[in-house]
Design brief:
- The chain has helices at 14-19, 21-25, 41-45, 56-59, 71-80, 94-109, 121-127, 157-166, 176-180, 220-228, 247-258, 270-274; strands spanning 11-12, 31-37, 51-55, 88-93, 115-118, 170-172, 203-204, 238-241, 264-266.
- It is of the alpha/beta class.
- The strands form two sheets. It has a five-stranded parallel β-sheet. Strands 7-6-8-9 form a four-stranded parallel β-sheet, with helices on both faces.
- Helix 6 packs across helix 7 and helix 6 (94-109) crosses helix 11.
Length: 288
């Protein structure tokens, strides 16, 4: 679906999506296209024809807990939007697929097999002049039966503490300014932690280094070099984290799905949790 020697067939090109728009616009649930953004204003303005719009903030996380959806709520959300557990789902979104990658990870957490990312995301689709519409996709409801959850791809605070003790690689994908503790969040975004810095021993490999200028992922060779230069290799466990778990999903996707690393987890609690824990160990500075 994309012309690259990645470990797994997990990316689709914009050309492939365009050539299959009739299937994505059909009420038949075999194919579903989903745009995932931090809000739905961009989707309401324009989106790929047939794309369902998911609001990451209000639809893809529990509204009373800092947590992903329950298995039951995940099934309800997908079923109500015409997505079955047999659907081939293609996800894309803003910020080079930050929230789409998070959603991909959540799909895998609940055992959905046929799920892919649109390489380059929303910006690439628009910048390259692919077709758009403002018509909201509306499909008949279907039954969705999730599997899992598959905890092997998710890390919790205890896993981070264990990683520190055992010297397991931690990949902090935030900006150098967030990693050093200079700032608590990217400019313009809500600060969600009491303290700045990073988990002791974590390597700062920014999510932005995994993609090209147009938002598409770099080659397998470039990605391998990026992580191996920081000592992050496929002979050990790896834990990725960021601020709220969305940017670290990009790193999880690159390591697990593109490079084929065997044991990669996404710490979705990320700095929102760790930076607010009482007595949690924190380092500041560049780490060099």
């Amino acid at each position: 679906m994309v012309d690259d020697d990645y470990a797994n067939d997990v990316l689709v090109s914009a050309d492939w999506v365009e050539s299959n728009l009739d299937e994505f616009e059909s009420d038949d649930p075999e194919y579903r296209l989903v745009e995932v953004d931090v809000d739905t204003e961009a989707y309401e303005d324009s989106h790929a024809p047939g794309a369902i719009g998911f609001n990451w903030e209000t639809q893809l996380q529990d509204q009373t807990q800092r947590d992903i959806l329950s298995k039951e709520d995940f099934a309800t959300l997908l079923g109500e939007h015409g997505i079955s557990d047999d659907s081939t789902v293609v996800l894309y979104g803003d910020n080079s697929n930050w929230f789409a990658a998070y959603t991909y990870w959540q799909f895998k957490y609940f055992g959905h097999e046929e799920v892919y990312l649109l390489d380059g995301g929303r910006d690439y689709w628009l910048d390259e002049g692919y077709p758009t519409t403002d018509e909201v996709a509306d499909f008949d409801s279907v039954n969705y039966t999730p599997r899992g959850p598959f905890e092997s791809i998710r890390a919790y605070r205890d896993d981070v503490e264990n990683a520190i003790d055992r010297g397991i690689p931690l990949v902090d994908v935030r900006s150098p300014e967030e990693y050093s503790g200079e700032i608590l969040a990217p400019p313009g975004l809500q600060e969600t932690a009491q303290r700045g810095g990073h988990v002791p021993g974590a390597k700062n490999v920014s999510w932005a280094a995994t993609v090209q200028e147009d938002g598409r992922f770099k080659s397998k060779e470039e990605l391998a070099e990026l992580y191996e230069d920081e000592g992050v290799t496929n002979d050990q466990e790896v834990v990725a984290y960021c601020r709220i778990g969305e940017r670290s999903s990009i790193a999880w996707f690159a390591l697990s799905e593109l490079l084929g690393y065997d044991d990669v987890t996404n710490y979705d609690g990320s700095w929102t949790e760790w930076g607010n824990l009482v007595d949690a160990p924190i380092e500041t500075g560049s780490g060099e």
